[in-house]
Write a structure and sequence with these properties.
Blueprint lengths: L1 E2 L2 E2 L4 E3 L8 H9 L5 E2 L3 E2 H5 L3 H6 L9 E6 L3 H15 L3 E6 L4 H5 L10 H14 L4 E8 L7 H9 L5 E8 L10 H10 L5 E4 L5 H11 L3 E4 L8 H10 L9 H19 L4 H12 L6 H7 L5 H14 L7
Bound molecules: flavin mononucleotide (FMN).
Flavin mononucleotide binds next to loops.
């Protein structure tokens, strides 16, 4: 099937997550079946300043599956220039615009979900970016800004008219941050209101079962997996199986540890071995799938080198703890 000009293998995408969906993690998820991925969000303004760290976040490895580079900002001209830079650096298959980030620092600058309160500016940004780059442009936003508001349907209709190629709605308001349930009913209303471009759902895609329910109940074209993939890239395999009517494949402790180590090695290679400090949270998420491993978790939270991590995994392997269901 085709999504925004790219061939995608399924309806299951890896969502953008700042501090999480870097190249090594995206590659692990791709291996388990993520059909399309997003980079972490990157500041358009920083890109226009040639900021090195922002640029590094957009480097894509060879042989990657379709990937969209996500940028955030509030000024249409800066966003257009940021999008051009993002594309130049990444060679990504498309540019995604963040209009959903709820973090105060971002919102305070009129960026991320703040744009849902300023649809005129949001529209100007979308039009400017669509004009600026020769690849598909998409946008990700929330149910609304204030608690209880559901401006997303109007927002989606506005966005559809700007020339974007797809949109993604997260069924929580900015006020909810990441708490409470994601509203599937409002996502279904967005899907019904948008007829000319694909709609992606985000929110509470925490298991293959949940992903299948979201697709069925909302009628959306694709579902984006975020927290459900943390320490659990296996969710994509479960989703591919669920789409075939099959139950999840039983995950063994050995496979979990092999994947953890492959992920850590890829991270050390991509960012240098010092990045293992950054890997700790991933390690802890993986160990979250194992029963009775508290002392190992304490050690994981202090791990700082590959050899140390390998030795720790060997000890866990010997104990062969049970793998918890998701
Ligand atoms: C740690 C973290 C970082 C995130 N960073 C981004 C981001 O950079 N861009 C974005 O559009 N959404 C970001 N999100 C939101 C997710 O993409 C997703 O919409 C949200 O987590 C809801 O899905 P879930 O309930 O299945 O986790 C982030 C979420 C988390 C938990």
């Amino acid at each position: 099937m085709r999504f925004c000009g790219s061939e995608v293998e399924s309806r299951f995408f890896l969502a953008p997550m700042a501090g999480v969906t870097d190249a090594p993690f995206r590659a692990v998820c791709e291996r388990y079946g993520a059909a399309l991925t997003y980079t972490e969000m990157v500041s358009a303004r920083a890109l226009t300043y040639q900021d090195e760290k922002s640029g590094r976040m957009l480097r894509l490895p060879e042989g990657h599956k379709p990937c969209f580079a996500q940028i955030f900002g509030s000024d249409p001209d800066v966003m257009a220039e940021g999008a051009r830079r993002a594309l130049e650096i990444s060679g990504a298959q498309g540019i995604d615009i963040n209009m959903g980030c709820p973090v105060s620092k971002i919102v305070g600058n009129g960026e991320g979900s703040a744009l849902m309160r300023d649809p005129k500016r949001a529209e100007a940004i979308l039009r400017a970016v669509v004009r600026a780059v020769p690849v598909p442009v998409t946008v990700k936003f929330r149910k609304g800004f204030e608690g209880g508001s559901d401006t997303c349907v109007e927002f989606a209709k506005m966005a559809e008219q700007t020339g974007i190629a797809a949109l993604c709605v997260h069924g929580r308001t900015r006020a909810q941050m990441y708490t409470g349930a994601s509203d599937r009913e409002v996502v279904a209303r967005v899907k019904a209101a948008v007829t000319s471009i694909p709609v992606i759902a985000s929110g509470d895609a925490l298991s293959a079962r949940a992903c299948m329910e979201i697709l069925r109940e909302t009628g959306v074209d694709y579902v984006m997996i975020a927290r459900g993939a943390e320490g659990n890239p296996f969710i994509f395999r479960d989703c591919l199986r669920a789409a075939e009517g099959l139950p999840p494949e039983r995950l063994s402790c050995g496979e979990l540890l092999d994947t953890l180590l492959a992920h850590a090695r890829a991270m050390a290679e991509w960012k240098g071995e010092r990045s293992l400090v950054e890997f700790r949270k991933h390690g802890l998420w993986y160990l979250g799938r194992l029963a009775g491993v508290k002392p190992f978790k304490v050690r994981m939270s202090g791990v700082s080198g590959l050899e140390e991590l390998e030795a720790l995994c060997e000890e866990i392997r010997k104990e062969d703890p049970a793998v918890k269901e998701v």
